[in-house]
Amino acid sequence: MTHEIIMAGFGGQGIMLIGTLLTYAGMKEGKKVSWLPSYGPEMRGGTANCAVVVSDEEIASPIVTEPTSCIVMNGPSFAKFHKALVPGGLLVLNSSLVKVDDRRGDIRVLKIPANDVAREVGSEKVANMVCLGALVEATSCVALDSVIKALKEVIHERHHNLLPMNEEALKKGASLVRAGA
Amino acid sequence: MKAIYERPRALKDIVTHYCPGCTHGIAHRILAEVIDELGIQGNTVGVASVGCSVFAYNYIDVDFQQAAHGRAPAVATGIKRVLPDTIVFTYQGDGDLASIGAAEILHAAARGENITVIFINNAIYGMTGGQMAPTTLEGMRTTTTPLGRQPASQGYPLRVAELLSTVEGAAYIARCSLHNAANIAKAKASLKKAFETQVQKKGFSLVEFLSSCPTNWGLSPQEALKWIEEKMIPVFPLGEFKVKEGEAR
Amino acid sequence: MAEVVLMKGNEAIGEAAIRAGCRYFFGYPITPQNEIPEYMAKRLPEVGGVYVQAESEVAAINMVYGAGGAGARVLISSSSPGISLMQEGISYLCGSEIPCVIVNMMRGGPGLGGIQPSQSDYFQATKGGGHGDYKLIVYGPSSIQEMVDIMFRAFSVAEKYRNPVMILGDGMLGQMMEPVSFPDETPPPDPRSRPWATTGNRGGKSKLLSSIILDPEGLDAHNWRLQEKYRRVEEEEVMWDLENAEDAEWFLVAYGTMARVCRAAMTMARREGIKVGLLRPITLWPFPKQAFEAVLPRARGFLCVEMSTGQMVEDVKLSVEGKAPVYFYGRTGGAVPVPRAVLKRIRDMVSGKAPSITDYYDRVAGGEIK
Ligand SMILES: Cc1ncc(C[n+]2csc(CCOP(=O)(O)OP(=O)(O)O)c2C)c(N)n1
To answer: Where would I find the H helices in B89-232?
Structure first.
């Protein structure tokens, strides 16, 4: 099984971080992984995105043009990536910020009010984790526990006081999916 | 009988290719004497530049690297960073150092690179046949300033010693002349001071030598030496421009 | 097996160099390779090494000349415009036979171009770029692990032949992260163990590293001696990878990240029953002509895919020698040939609909082909 995932949002929403987290978790599970960022002036202010591949097989191309799942955290990213999803693909939509309706009909859409949930958990900064929790729960590309374990490896030590909040946000995102979001 | 004057050990017993009356030879000789006196011949690496002195390694008996035009200070930086206890010097003309290599010399000084630079200012491009140099005097005729250097279109001569003496990283900067025995003696003393600056790890050192180019100036050797005294020294005053006191870094 | 870590390509390059015994780095910032100098600035002092930010790429490559000539193992990196500035220095390094490793994380040109990945410096790297009859030994790795492994090889090959080696990556390889493990560490060499290095004559014969030989006979002899060395490199160092060669009739030819895109396209095509193989040069100079000889008897066509308007394809044609058709597909400036687009070209090639290379240029100019 090969998961080709795109994560997209504004610069500053922590898109690259959740991409790294998922990649790291996949690696620790012994899967083949790759992480490819969009880079350049885009990263500051505009949309930022990264492509993560998690697979049981050797990864051919790290470039993802036909994602099997997508996290979309802002409006511009929706416009950019929602059409690219493969039929039957999964779209995790941050419904706190993206007020649109899917007109394709052939994909699964999970509307997650990530910013609102994150605020309840403690800070809107962890909205990215809420989305990642939802994606991991819905795709089973890695175990949620692997992602939680990866937190302290990927997040810089000086922010380790925030680990519990990040963990809670991941779990909240996952539980929303289990509850049928 | 006791020998009181002989060829320095660091100077090879080879006839140079320099023109009659050119002071590159004198600069080589005092360089070799300083190397001998400091006892550093076995632990020195020279960097030859591009210009008439490109073959300096044929005459000075130390390890040498030959650098691209203007890049000698960068090459010397590379050597010195690998071999911090080895004495490293460059030997550069005014076209090499002040024109094409202006960035390299300025930044080697800014980094306080612990190297010694021997800078031959003959106000002209010697090797390529007498074209304008950044140090060419106002009104001076060269093959590319046939009417004499016109500041309005060709700018003014660059005073390298003064310029570099404003740089924090520079530890010793002096200008000397090679036009007569008294000045040659002073030049040698300055050069020795520059090398000692390096030995003491004080930072960047440079000695500018006002030098003759009778061939491209169109003068006899004697006239050329007189020309240095009368025309060059007023524009390029002699002296020490920077002497950093105090401890090694 | 060593520990597997997740690392960005640019950082892995730096770490690999340090573990391969490199303690000197000279650089100048340029996107998309800034993580290399940044990594070296942090790591080198920790291991007793030296990092210098030069005033320009021109100065940086000449610092490499000095340091390499003084017997050290030296790394330098940049991206396309900076590598252009280094061409003078590279020519001098080859002329004076000073070893070093140069990394080019290619971005789109010409001129300032863009900062997205590209492969348009292939000609510059493999055919010259600077003046004179010289050769760089050029590797085009296609994964971070391969880039790390090649870094170790690059230093030993550079020193074996006393010649600069270039690792030709692209922005993508530099920016992406993959799991990687590092080979065992090699200690840095003692400069004084190299008989040719200028470390001070210690009372013996003075050594000289120079590229000026004004005597025509002498320079001619020097050049032919260099050529003799390059022939040896061709015989001993060429590297390539062949996939699905057992039954393949159609071949994709690509290097670096493009080879990975082609691998994905190959898998898609094979699912459709098309017998596609992948010929991946690992050394770009020397170019693996031998690999073509091996597959030519049953090859019905070659499709060369590059992030350029067609550079390596010229070497492919020289290697195929007209014995099979050669097709080309390329995008530039950060636009990347994606697997599905490559698949379409494979189908066209197989069905006889692919344009010849000359047609291709005409039709691109006419806006027909995207
Ligand atoms: C890149 C490059 N440009 C030009 C030259 C040609 N060139 C050789 S020597 C020289 C001028 C040297 O003049 P200077 O540094 O004043 O030394 P001099 O010959 O007067 O001692 C020039 C322009 C070169 N070798 N390389």
So the answer is: 94-95, 102-110, 151-154, 160-165, 181-199, 214-217, 221-227
The CA-to-CA distance between both ends of chain B, in Å, stands at 46
CATH topology of domain A2-178: Pyruvate-ferredoxin Oxidoreductase; domain 3 (3.40.920)
Residues C325, C178 within the same domain: no
Residues C218 and C312 in one domain: no
Which ligand 1 atom is at minimum distance from the Cα of B133? 16
* Partner-chain residue, chosen from C4, C116, C339, that has the shortest CB–CB distance to A27: C4
Q: Of C236, C263, C298, which residue constitutes the final position of a domain?
A: C236
At B174, the amino acid letter reads A
| Ligand 1 center to B70 CA (angstroms) | 8
Q: Report the domain count for chain C.
A: 2
Number of CB pairs, chain B paired with chain C, less than 8 A apart? 136
Listed in sequence order, the residues at least 6 apart from A36 whose beta carbon sits closer than 8 Å to its beta carbon are A50, A51, A52, A62, A63, A64, C172, C175, C176, C177
Residues C180 and C246 in one domain: no
Instruction: Report which of C309, A146, C201 is spatially closest to residue B63, judged by C-alpha positions.
Output: C201
Task: CATH number of the domain at C212, please.
Answer: 3.40.50.970
Q: In what order do the strands lie in the sheet with C24-27?
A: C50-53, C24-27, C74-78, C100-106, C164-170, C137-139, C283-285
Cβ within 8 Å, pair A36-C175 = yes
pLDDT in tens, B11-64: 999 999 999 999 999 999 999 999 999 999 999 999 999 999 999 999 999 999
Q: Classify residue C334 by burial, with Cβ atoms within 10 Å: 0-12, 13-18, 19+.
A: middle
Amino acid B159 reads: R
Q: Tell me which of C236, C261, C284 is where a domain ends.
A: C236
Owning domain of residue C169 = 4-236
pLDDT < 70 positions in chain C: 1, 362, 365-370
Q: pLDDT (tens digit, 9 = 90+) per residue, B191-202?
A: 999 999 999 999
| pLDDT under 70: residue ranges of chain B | 246-249
Q: Where are the beta strands (DSSP E) in chain B?
A: 44-48, 63-66, 87-93, 116-121, 124-125, 131-132, 170-177, 204-210, 239-243
8 Å CB contact between C245 and C296: no
**Domain match, C130 and C224 both:** yes
Cα-to-centroid distance, B123 and ligand 1 (Å): 13
Residue of chain B with shortest Cα separation from C188: B82
